[in-house]
Amino acid sequence: MPRFIDEAFLQRLSNLRFIVKGRRQGRLSGVHTSPRAGVGLEFADYRAYTPGDDFRYIDWNVYGRLDRILVKTFVHEADLPIYLLIDFSASMQVGTPNKAQYAAQFAAAMAYLGLKELDRVGVYPFNDRLIPGLPPRHGMGQMGKIIRLLREAEPGGRTSIDQAITEFLSQTRESGIVFIISDLLGSSGYEEGLAKLVHRGDEVTVIQVLDPSDASPPMVGTTRIVDVESSQRLTLTIGHRTKEEYEQRFREYQRALKVFLLSRRITHFQVTTDRSMERFIHEDLRVGGVLR
Amino acid sequence: MIIQNPDAFYLLFGALLILLLHFLRSRERRREVSALFLWEGLSGDPQSKAARIRQHIDPLLLLQLSVLLALAFALTQPLLRVPQRSISRLAIVIDGSASMRSRTNSGASRYQEAVEGAVAALDRYPADETIIIQFSEHSQLSTHTDDPSVLKSILRSSSPTWYGDGTAEGLLMMFGSVGGVEQFDRIVVLSDRTLMGLPPQAEMMLFDEGDNIGITAFSVRQNPAQPGVSAFVEILNATEGFVNTQIRISDGENQTTLTLMLPPNAVDRYTIPFPNSRGSVFTATLDYPDDLDGDNKRYFALDRPIDVRVFWIGERNRYLTAALRASVPVTEVDDISSADLIIVNQRQVPSIEQGVVLLIQSAMDRVLTLGEFREAGEIVALSPNHPLLRSVDAGNFRISQIAEAQFEVPIETLLETDGFPVLAEYSDPPRRLIFLMADLMNTNLPITVDFPILIRNLANELVRIPAELSFQSLEVGGSISLQGRGIVRSLTDSQDQPAPYSKSLLTFSPQEPGIYTLTTDRGGFAISASSPASETVLKGTSQLISGHTEVEQSERLYPLWPILVGIAVLLLLIETCLHMGLNVPLRRST
After folding, report:
1. Considering the entire predicted model, what is its pTM?
2. In this structure, which topology does domain B87-210+540-553 adopt according to CATH?
3. Which residues does chain A have within 8 Å of residue B51's beta carbon, measured at their own beta carbons?
């Protein structure tokens, strides 16, 4: 049985860390800047001393010049919850390796990066609804649970991103970094759910995992095309013309998706399963400003 | 192709079962997609005929049918006839006899054409090992090699001999020296005549083109009653028409000619008087430009008689001398070591350890002691068939007295009287002793007609002049002994160049026609050697003419079933892989 994820691969990711675009509020100390002033290394401001403040933060130089006791405040380095929403609908089982496997491995990599930075990481598989997952926890103990969950998850059912996100929002009150890993090829829509996420203040990144045949199907002649989610069928002769028509339609779909995501300031990455995941993380995600 | 078990084709009916099972299965080509909504509304491509066929033909079905076909075909045990091209051992037998010197219409000799045929055979039958036999009366084996360029070089640098034809038996014996004919997969024989009795793997290439007229026999004898000689010639006209030609007989100084009209395909014999000849070496030449020059000339040398050298001990007896001279040329010598015959007449001599000695009423130390003389009675021949007594009637001999003798060596008594030996022999090579126990002058032997006969027998038998001293009818390839004419000094050909001969065996086998000169301590002797008469042959009766090869292509039967079984196994593996889904592209497309 092949290993779900290679430890050496994870080791090679260890020098990466997430880039958080805005200052996020966190409950525990982490490496992400928080809008709350607190204990940290980055100077934030001065405020008047009040009893109970830590004497170590009184700026004695200012007291000498102004005769006022001021306390230095620092940018609070807060931990951020990282939510990994992974599509485990039936459409993710298309391809070899199938998209679900690729998505699960990517999610494990992101979980490792988050837990390494002392962030809390939660995993939420979904199809047309949220599948019981793991709420955000920190520590490497969470990593084992995540891997077990991802390895044992089986794709199935239809896709409903809107419904899954709605349920996700109801289960989590704290905003954070949200990765939505899906092929986004469900017919039920994604706009409403993603809009709700952005509205709550989450920093959303959509990783669109596709099989090469999703974008460019092979010309296989007359074929009975079966939707893996709905089992609906359609008989077509896939030749040169049909292939071009499909590819044109797919490009239009992708364009619409990008326009929407851009309008919501949602970061979007498209990756096919034949691309090396390590290169995708090291190259695409770093260039795209998700990791540094 | 040979099908050994055609019943196995019935196995092909199994295809019906495969087809039945195939059509009973669902043959739907499916392709699962992530989202059908992207496909909805597409009209699809028009389906080509080939695509429709492909749609209905399952590659697995084709593989299954192919496996069945291969297995059924394998069970028929097919044998493929393959011309034997690549062989392990090849023998090129090229006729190197004198007749291969004949020119063909192309201007090349039969031998040159045969060489090119052999080169073509080398290309046609590339072999691991090849031998070349130049086949003739004295066949020669070339070096084994597997390098075609070396073989071709050997062939092209070779030339025909003047020897006569070899025989199939001789050829088989030659093959015996290299392991036997069965060691060779292919034997290519290139000759101007068809060889019978060749092994089955042999193929013949015949090169028998060309017209020929030749002298097949030539001899000269001295006229008994008049000066000069008479020549006898035998001429073969191997052409299809009458030939008007001329034959010349020459002795080196004088010559005589005769104009001839030769009938087609016939042998004619002529006796040609040559009265003004004074020579002893003759050449017969046929003036006709035919395709084989070698047999248009023949040689003949009259034999020069050799003298018998006699050494006397004691008084010479003129009767004996006369009888000897009547039998053979005689030369008396003073050196006992050079004598062919030592005659001891009424003497006591020490032991003579070698040579032929005739003791006439003589004694020899450690051999014979003479006693008292006594009267002799009737002469009786104890060994009438002995060579010394051939044609001798001893009953006419009368002897008045003989000496009683005591022999110390075992003798064979040929004639006796009253139990006492009269004529006896003792042979102890290299010494041979003949004892005559009576004084010739006390016998009637000199006046009998049998005495010269006895002496001739004695001379011929004791001196042992070889019968093969006659060199007249020698042909190239034949062998003669050079013994009996004295100590050989040299042997030269007509260009006065040394001719090879066996110094140990003192034999000579001429390799080219011509006049050779043997020089011994007894003078010079001419040896004539002509091309073998057998090489003056008629045109081959075979329908195969030069340039056409009698190539009986042998074939090897290769069993095909192992290949077919291998194909079936391979197809089964492919089908298994396809079925197990290891063929990713196909899996994706379905």
Report:
1. 0.45
2. Rossmann fold (3.40.50)
3. 221-222, 237, 239
